[in-house]
Amino acid sequence: xxxxxxxxxxxxxxxxxxxxxxxxxxxxxxxxxxxxxxxxxxxxxxxxxxxxxxxxxxxxxxxxxxxxxxxxxxxxxxxxxxxxxxxxxxxxxxxxxxxxxxxxxxxxxxxxxxxxxxxxxxxxxxxxxxxxxxxxxxxxxxxxxxxxxxxxxxxxxxxxxxxxxxxxxxxxxxxxxxxxxxxxxxxxxxxxxxxxxxxxxxxxxxxxxxxxxxxxxxxxxxxxxxxxxxxxxxxxxxxxxxxxxxxxxxxxxxxxxxxxxxxxxxxxxxxxxxxxxxxxxxxxxxxxxxxxxxxxxxxxxxxxxxxx
Length: 308
Prior knowledge:
The chain is an alpha/beta fold. It has a single domain (21-306), classed as Rossmann fold (3-Layer(aba) Sandwich). It has helices at 10-13, 22-29, 42-51, 56-60, 113-120, 146-150, 168-178, 183-196, 212-224, 242-257, 269-275; strands at 74-82, 88-97, 102-106, 128-133, 136-137, 153-157, 230-234, 261-265, 278-283, 286-291, 304-306. The chain is globular and about 45 Å long. The protein starts with 9 loop residues before the first helix and ends with a strand.
């Protein structure tokens, strides 16, 4: 009897393909390998967070050091934004963001932070000037390409923007369903995103049954489900108490540590002062200060750049 007859053909031995896990997908996309240069995965960090063993000092070390010598992934070039009412929201903004950067946008209400965020997600176009993201000029991007661009961007807002009649799982999966992603991919990505934000087991809960911090974690999981290269957050801790706000910030730091670029508009001076990341201070529509290791307040009325 031929022993080879009992051996299954090679094609039968292959395991079925499945969607890569979220942390592995992000890590591979950013070129740092499945475990990354920092020697941990998102799953490891989420587990540590649940056990509350991540100290503030350890969290400080989780942010990657961006390379300012490389081509920026986000570039604002002499950007102006004037609304039909005549309000000049931004004036001659020049800003470069390298891959892996973590920056805070700070300044008084009405300074132009939210306008900058809306321009970055192509919700609006600049009146003058150019904005490039990953080498693509947003102002010239055709409308039909916007959904593909926005898959690269994870959005997190102050008011969560969850759909109240959908479960946690359905909220996170919603965008993937709209795009027609297969069920096995949706299941895998949503489970991984929930694990990353420490909400495994809450899949069937509705937003009304969750605390504010839990709702924001769902919003972050929704932002992560496409493995975005960029996270844009507009006042993500604005409705949270200080302890919960710090927990949410740890999530953003872990996401950044895996290679994602994070741009966050905030009024939370305590967190900005504690973390000492890059600070872009905006005042009267202009960049008043660009400090790579800054505080919330530092004479924002006097234009200066401290990025050396």
